[in-house]
Design a protein that fits this description.
This protein is mostly beta strands. The protein has 8 helices and 44 strands. The strands form 7 sheets. It has a 22-stranded antiparallel beta barrel. The protein is elongated, with a radius of gyration of 29 Å.
Length: 879
């Protein structure tokens, strides 16, 4: 790092410390003022984590509640950015990754504690939602929260410890429950326009919610739409020109008797990047900068809707129903063709290979890609997602005196269709190299640079059309769920009644996949999908819960659940929690239990390919070349299991002031992870899972085969803390919320030895970026019709630990980053409307540039937002 860069970094760190310090000072000053008066009460909210209803302050488990008002103060109007700044959420991708996760475009997920998106259970109104039929790039299945319209969300409840004792699989790190609006009268319209200050990436969000109520019924329905424009890869300096491949156009060529390929003499002239293996020679590869087409933010269009209805035929019974729909279309732009990892042989009589035309005059091996922007347009891939969810149920007084029932049926389905994925047909491309290509099987394709520089050697577009084809895939995930719960009191103890809940659940989950024949048979030079399949499983579960008042100020909660999966067997998950209130202002809580996650249907059935850059110690290159990473199903996978512990306190020194502090720990075993392709190559370049050109043990890599394995364990612990306060002044009301998570340890086995990888980037292992400290502070001051809101988000510095050959950056530190958001809202009571204007990331903090050459996005998507400063205006109107 230069002295100038170091100076700038020091100044940036000072600004970030000032922002973080200012939020902490504001909290302490305001807390002191709040302690002087008592003018408000805390409302009660029934929370996730128990079937026995109780207010937040009485739960023995840590639960955070994000209300719709708080989300609007932070300008969170789409689900993909909902958890971006939540401190306890670590490692969820809120922006697309067109290279590592091309089949999840338009989707978003939650990752509590950095334990994986599959380890956070996502519920809607307390019930399961179908998981995305497309697994994440690491093989994890998740609920796509981009199918949930936030205009219909009343609040989001987050259980911050294991919840398998009630909810079963996936609730290892915790539970996120989206509670939808159930009662609303009137009509509300909302519109927001948001744009980056630089390069005009825009989001337009429109929503409407309406509700009607009668004496014995309620109906609420909402719909929202999103129109999002793209942000190009080259529009941001930290990402510009980072997507490069050493196998480009016009390529390099190796005579069969030669040891090294020769770079096409027109490489640099045609925009290629000469990459010699031997300095000051033309022996090497011709790379290409692919960044021109790729997007940091992809264009999207969403339409989301949700409706809830209740009908009370009597005072003792309620019938309810829900219906959700979601439609999303997105585009993924990529280079015109993939690298040809079959490394075909070009015959001596190919026009471009004739000596008279600058060729070799002998058969040569081709190292490159058939098409680039200079001779073909970018590939405009399409993604479409459709979801439907329907719930029908009844609740009320049961046949057992004093007990209540709740029984429901849920159906949910999500379809995902990637189409227009262009690839090169191997048989037709080889035919064209040998003069029997084109529509009439009588034409050559010239892969040399002379096809551009010499009009007489130009390629007929019909030949290119003959060896290119658009592939498609269809994914369908479906879930049927029937469940019933009984709640009531069992008997009296001296300290109160013993409450109980018992229930049962049956689920049928299925996953279907289909693709075109060329993908199935491997006739494309890159894409491969394997055969079509349909797979399903059945899950039976019983569960129970007890709330036992041991003493007047001491309560015990016991939960237990048994799940049986038709494919992997059964699992028993007990949980116990204590709540002790030694003082009216102080609550001590503790919990211990077990949780688990069953292998997903994707991990035991699907085959997928992604296109990624691999650093190969046998073939060092300044530009790693794209390689096929083939993921095959795992065999004999076992469920993941975890033990979770928690100890915490709630202190309310004043009715307007509250503090929480919670220690948490997870002992997570038998983690199902996708093997790291880079770790395989780095550990043993001749690993049998690596396929090299021509079977040469030191040849270029064509493919790395990875799978899912129960390979690891994690011991993670840390501290959550929060403070909330409010104070009435003569001029108005001040509200402040501070949330933070400190990750103390994340210990796992890497490269055969146990390591604490907290505070590390973790680019080449199964974990994701794990900054030690994350903070979010929100301050809001309301004076009459005016409301001013300031939000500070802070992420601590973390270190690079990438150790692949050619990257000597282990220990490099990515500086801490703090962002400042500002909002002003004007309430126009006469029109029953609100107008808000604001700036997100007001100081225009950009992500730190990645130092890893094979990090094709140029920054850490699991931590940072690439957009920079944004401005927005929002209008709401009620009728």
């Amino acid at each position: 790092m230069s002295r100038v860069d170091a100076s700038r970094g020091h100044a940036r760190r000072n600004r970030q410390r000032v922002l973080a310090g200012a939020s902490a000072v504001a909290l302490m000053v305001w807390a002191g003022a709040a302690a002087a008066q008592d003018t408000s009460t805390v409302g009660e909210v029934v929370v996730t984590g128990s079937y026995i209803q109780r207010p937040v302050k009485d739960t023995p488990n840590p639960v955070s509640v994000l209300g719709s008002d708080e989300l609007q103060k932070q300008s969170v109007l789409t689900s993909d950015y909902l958890f971006k700044n939540l401190p306890m959420a670590n490692g969820a991708r809120s922006t697309p990754d067109n290279t590592n996760a091309p089949y999840q475009l338009g989707m978003a997920n939650i990752n509590l504690r950095g334990l994986g998106v599959a380890s956070t259970l996502t519920l809607v109104n307390g019930r399961r939602q179908v998981v995305s039929p497309v697994p994440l790039d690491d093989g994890s299945s998740f609920v796509d929260i981009n199918t949930i319209p936030l205009i219909m969300v009343d609040r989001v409840e987050i259980l911050q410890n294991g919840g398998s004792g009630l909810y079963g699989s996936d609730a290892v790190a915790g539970v996120a429950n989206f509670v939808m609006r159930k009662r609303f009268e009137g009509l509300e319209l909302r519109a927001q326009y948001q744009s980056t200050f630089k390069d005009s990436q825009e989001d337009i969000n429109l929503g409407v919610v309406g509700g009607l109520s009668g004496d014995n019924w309620d109906f609420v329905a909402g719909i929202e739409g999103l129109y999002r424009t793209p942000l190009a890869q080259n529009d941001r300096p930290f990402a510009a020109h980072k997507i490069r491949s050493a196998l480009g156009f016009p390529g390099a060529f190796r005579p069969l008797t030669a040891a090294l390929p020769t770079i096409d003499p027109n490489c640099a002239r045609l925009g290629g990047i000469p990459t010699p293996f031997v300095p000051n020679t033309n022996l090497g590869l011709c790379g290409s900068d692919l960044s021109e087409a790729f997007k940091l933010i992809s264009p999207e269009q969403r339409i989301l809707g949700y409706a809830t209805a209740e009908y009370r035929p009597s005072d003792n019974h309620t019938l309810y129903a829900e219906l959700g729909i979601a439609h999303n279309e997105a585009k993924l732009f990529s280079s015109p063709s993939y690298s040809n990892l079959t490394f075909p042989v070009i015959p001596a009589n190919n026009p471009g290979n004739l000596v008279a035309n600058g060729g070799f005059g002998v058969p040569v091996v081709f190292y490159g890609r058939p098409l680039m922007y200079i001779n073909y347009p970018a590939n405009e891939q399409r993604r479409r997602s459709d979801m439907v969810r329907a719930v029908a149920g009844a609740r009320g007084e049961s046949f057992i005196d004093g007990w209540r029932y709740d029984a429901s049926y849920t159906f949910a389905q999500q379809l995902y269709s990637p189409t227009n994925i262009r690839d090169t047909l191997e048989d037709r491309f080889n035919a064209a190299l040998n003069g029997v290509g084109g529509p009439n099987n009588n034409q050559f394709f010239n892969p040399f640079g002379s096809s551009i520089t010499n009009p007489a050697l130009a390629n007929d577009p019909r030949v290119i059309d003959d060896f290119t084809a658009d592939s498609w895939r269809k994914y369908k995930g479906r879930m049927h769920s029937v469940e019933g719960v009984l709640t009531g009191d069992l008997f009296d103890l001296p300290a109160g009644k013993v409450a109980a809940a018992v229930g049962a659940q049956f689920r049928h989950e299925s996953l279907d996949f289909a693709s075109d024949r060329d993908q199935q048979t491997g006739n494309f030079i890159f894409l491969f999908s394997g055969p079509d399949f349909e797979i399903s499983q059945k899950v039976w579960a019983v569960f129970g819960e007890l709330a036992v008042p041991i003493a007047e100020n001491l309560d015990l909660q016991l939960q237990a659940r048994y799940d049986h999966y038709s494919r992997v067997g059964g699992n028993f998950s007990p949980q116990a929690a204590l709540r002790w209130e030694p003082l009216d202002s102080l609550v001590i809580r503790a919990s211990a239990g077990t949780s688990f996650r069953a292998p997903s249907l994707s991990q035991i059935s699907s085959i997928s390919t992604i296109n990624n850059a691999v650093v190969d110690p046998f073939n060092p290159s300044l530009i790693p070349f794209f390689t096929q990473i083939l993921t095959v199903p795992g065999s004999e996978l076992e469920p993941e299991t975890a033990k979770n512990f928690g100890l915490g306190a709630i202190w309310n020194p004043h009715s307007q002031l509250s503090f929480t502090l919670d220690y948490w720990r997870y002992d997570y075993e038998d983690l199902i992870v996708k093997e790291s392709f880079q770790a395989i190559v780095s550990a043993n370049p001749n690993d049998p899972r690596i396929t090299r050109a021509g079977g040469d043990p030191r040849g270029l890599i064509q493919q790395v085969r990875v799978s899912f394995v129960n390979q690891n364990s994690v011991v993670a612990d840390g501290i959550d803390f929060s403070a909330t306060a409010n104070q009435e002044y003569e001029l108005g009301r001040l509200d402040l919320t501070l949330r933070g998570t400190y990750l103390n340890k994340y210990e796992t086995t890497i490269a055969g030895r146990k390591q604490d990888i907290s505070g590390k980037r973790n680019f080449e292992n199964f974990a994701r970026s794990l900054p030690k400290l994350r903070l979010s502070a929100i301050g809001s001051f309301a004076a009459g019709p005016h409301t001013f809101t300031t939000t500070v988000n802070y992420i601590s510095a973390y270190e690079e630990n990438f150790t692949a050959p050619g990257n000597a950056f282990e220990g490099y530190e990515y500086d801490a980053l703090a962002t400042l958001d500002l909002q002003y809202q004007l309430s126009l009571d006469a029109w029953d409307a609100d107008i808000a204007v604001g700036v997100i990331n007001a100081t225009d903090q950009y992500p730190h540039s990645s130092v890893i050459s094979s990090d094709l996005q140029g920054f850490d998507r699991f931590v940072y937002d690439p957009r920079g400063r944004l401005g927005y205006v929002r209008v709401s109107k009620r009728f």
